[in-house]
Amino acid sequence: MSVTAAEGFTAAGVAAGLKSAAPDGARPRDVALVLNHGPDKHAAAVFTTNRVAAAPVLWSQQVISDGRADAVVLNSGGANACTGAPGFADTHQTAEYVAEKLQATGAEVSAGDVLVCSTGLIGERLDMPALLGGVASAVTELNPDDAAGQRAAQAIMTTDSVMKISSASGAEFTVGGMAKGAGMLAPGMATMLSVVTTDAVIAQADLDAALREAVRLSFNRADSDGCMSTNDTVIAMASGAHPQADPSGVDLAEFQAALNQVCQDLAAQLIADAEGAHHEIAISTVNAATEEQAETASRSVARSNLFKTAIFGQDPNWGRILSAVGTTDVDFDPSTIDVAVNGVWVCRAGGIGDERSLVDLSGRHVKVVIDLKSGGAEATILTNDLTHDYVHENSAYST
Amino acid sequence: MSVTAAEGFTAAGVAAGLKSAAPDGARPRDVALVLNHGPDKHAAAVFTTNRVAAAPVLWSQQVISDGRADAVVLNSGGANACTGAPGFADTHQTAEYVAEKLQATGAEVSAGDVLVCSTGLIGERLDMPALLGGVASAVTELNPDDAAGQRAAQAIMTTDSVMKISSASGAEFTVGGMAKGAGMLAPGMATMLSVVTTDAVIAQADLDAALREAVRLSFNRADSDGCMSTNDTVIAMASGAHPQADPSGVDLAEFQAALNQVCQDLAAQLIADAEGAHHEIAISTVNAATEEQAETASRSVARSNLFKTAIFGQDPNWGRILSAVGTTDVDFDPSTIDVAVNGVWVCRAGGIGDERSLVDLSGRHVKVVIDLKSGGAEATILTNDLTHDYVHENSAYST
């Protein structure tokens, strides 16, 4: 179940011709639209912190500033990043066109409440006639059923091999979501985009806080190759349309748990679909002084090319793990740190531990545990190995 | 000319059996010794800032603390990192043995003035009988001629395909140096080691300051894969033995320039010898607010796997350059930044610039210029592309 799992939303995913046709001539979907029918139009969003933000990010930051959004339009086949004022005008025109077409159907939508997301190659203008044609077609295909939600999820795929969708429900609400990209294939162009919908009755400030917490614990802990996109965007929209909704508001703890679950599921799917990767790696740092320190230590290992190539080579090279942790300022004593790879404590007390030949790295899943012995906090970062396919995909992408 | 270019130094490089024999049975050199005969024994050193520092780093930090060193012993074939107290004892024993053997030849050397450097795989103990045998043999082969200096440079090679040596002279001094490693093949295990000698008459504090400035402008601006070794060490030793030396001290500006030249030459040789690399890339940031900001911007690009794979694919993907600069906090306006790749300004004012097909990336040398338009400072970082050979070498190394 995708973004239409929640009541009050319709979606569409169409082929507008922004992406190349398949060898058999089939046109892949490349324009998605999600419409919130209300009664509430609460929305929140988290954007890339890259200062070279794409035009749709700059636009959507303005749209979201009042906490309301009526619709989201997303396209693959072009990131509309580093395109200057003309690129921003393209985004603006897209939002205007979405509003115009929706208004013609009787929907109450203003252009200033239409979020825009784009993903694809940086530094090229979008094919606007194709994109606007896709918008017109998507408006006519908006549907509340599950298949429509899945078509929207398909339309935002770039190098993704499968769509990413997830949902969770409570007694008084449902959360549905879709995501695309990241993975290690090409996050710098592929971008991570996600739209999460809910029919919960929830104040905008609560939705905003819940989204930031969920993103912190999910997408921000999936670190495929350390590169930050110009387009990353995560959007949450709440309609308040659940039939059993308590008008006084959802149970916030229950809602947070469901939102975390959907976002963590989507983040795990992103890492799992890194086609160039041979291993999905979970790096857990335990017994850290703080959760932030645990995250810092895990992320430093996740960003070490030497560690990531070692895992590709099925080599439990714990020295590279220690070396990566040693570049951070987290609290630990190099003479007491322990490291396990797939259950074998190959490093004990900062030195040689159990027999490294006992480590089995033939499977796809790798679990690294780093015990800092400095406190009681922990955090896990998900990443991939660095493979020939990563080099191939990313060296061949735009040429 | 290597470390024996300067008067007052002898060197040796011998095969001790720490490294595997070549297919034809030839034993590669793997133990080097450099002895300062004085009259001065001034020394300075810069070490890795990795908190997981190898035993020889911990030892040498103690040795250098009084600003005096009599000799340096270096081995390849093992890093002696993450080896705990037994590894430290091995280093200590090595220094004691060097001093003992040198004393037997009449040299005035104490173990507490013997620097130790090691390079090779992390997390394994050294073969001490082999190493000590190499030390004994190296002591008998110490020689002031150029060939001996070159043998020392050969003995510290790991994945290096050629030795790295350099020298420069002034009216009253000569500077000679050798280096190994980094390169992109496996800096996390290969380590960057360098020993620079001079016969200048120079106060220890001046030598220390000159070395730190030279390292800042050379080795610290060669960033192959962003990984920091547990063993990186750069050592400078001054004998004051130049026949025309002014007893009141060398011209410090002239000495600094020569030392910078030698260190920059060695750093460039390290980047040039990254066998896995197909391109040597110089990333210059110009018109930055400060030199530090210029370095930060260039280094962020040098560490982007997406940029490095694009160059491997001969793709002047300037969007990935902007995206990397956008993750920093340096002063720049995304709407005015310009980027040139091999002389073609592919990005102007943050958007599409001159025709990218004009960029010729078929050669080995790549020059990126990032114009921040925020001031008058500049800095250049040297790096390599990310290739299939990098993945291959680093995934296959220890298994």
UniProtKB/TrEMBL annotation, chains A, B:
<comment type="similarity">
    <text>Belongs to the ArgJ family.</text>
</comment>
<feature type="binding site">
    <location>
        <position position="275"/>
    </location>
    <ligand>
        <name>substrate</name>
    </ligand>
</feature>
<comment type="pathway">
    <text>Amino-acid biosynthesis; L-arginine biosynthesis; L-ornithine and N-acetyl-L-glutamate from L-glutamate and N(2)-acetyl-L-ornithine (cyclic): step 1/1.</text>
</comment>
<feature type="site" description="Involved in the stabilization of negative charge on the oxyanion by the formation of the oxyanion hole">
    <location>
        <position position="120"/>
    </location>
</feature>
<comment type="pathway">
    <text>Amino-acid biosynthesis; L-arginine biosynthesis; N(2)-acetyl-L-ornithine from L-glutamate: step 1/4.</text>
</comment>
<protein>
    <recommendedName>
        <fullName>Arginine biosynthesis bifunctional protein ArgJ</fullName>
        <ecNumber>2.3.1.35</ecNumber>
        <ecNumber>2.3.1.1</ecNumber>
    </recommendedName>
</protein>
<dbReference type="InterPro" id="IPR016117">
    <property type="entry name" value="ArgJ-like_dom_sf"/>
</dbReference>
<dbReference type="InterPro" id="IPR042195">
    <property type="entry name" value="ArgJ_beta_C"/>
</dbReference>
<feature type="binding site">
    <location>
        <position position="394"/>
    </location>
    <ligand>
        <name>substrate</name>
    </ligand>
</feature>
<feature type="binding site">
    <location>
        <position position="191"/>
    </location>
    <ligand>
        <name>substrate</name>
    </ligand>
</feature>
<keyword id="KW-0028">Amino-acid biosynthesis</keyword>
<comment type="function">
    <text>Catalyzes two activities which are involved in the cyclic version of arginine biosynthesis: the synthesis of N-acetylglutamate from glutamate and acetyl-CoA as the acetyl donor, and of ornithine by transacetylation between N(2)-acetylornithine and glutamate.</text>
</comment>
<keyword id="KW-0963">Cytoplasm</keyword>
<feature type="binding site">
    <location>
        <position position="399"/>
    </location>
    <ligand>
        <name>substrate</name>
    </ligand>
</feature>
<comment type="subunit">
    <text>Heterotetramer of two alpha and two beta chains.</text>
</comment>
<keyword id="KW-0055">Arginine biosynthesis</keyword>
<dbReference type="InterPro" id="IPR002813">
    <property type="entry name" value="Arg_biosynth_ArgJ"/>
</dbReference>
<feature type="active site" description="Nucleophile">
    <location>
        <position position="191"/>
    </location>
</feature>
<feature type="site" description="Involved in the stabilization of negative charge on the oxyanion by the formation of the oxyanion hole">
    <location>
        <position position="119"/>
    </location>
</feature>
<dbReference type="Pfam" id="PF01960">
    <property type="entry name" value="ArgJ"/>
</dbReference>
<keyword id="KW-0511">Multifunctional enzyme</keyword>
<feature type="site" description="Cleavage; by autolysis">
    <location>
        <begin position="190"/>
        <end position="191"/>
    </location>
</feature>
<keyword id="KW-0068">Autocatalytic cleavage</keyword>
<feature type="binding site">
    <location>
        <position position="158"/>
    </location>
    <ligand>
        <name>substrate</name>
    </ligand>
</feature>
<feature type="binding site">
    <location>
        <position position="180"/>
    </location>
    <ligand>
        <name>substrate</name>
    </ligand>
</feature>
<keyword id="KW-0012">Acyltransferase</keyword>
<keyword id="KW-0808">Transferase</keyword>
<dbReference type="GO" id="GO:0004358">
    <property type="term" value="F:L-glutamate N-acetyltransferase activity, acting on acetyl-L-ornithine as donor"/>
</dbReference>
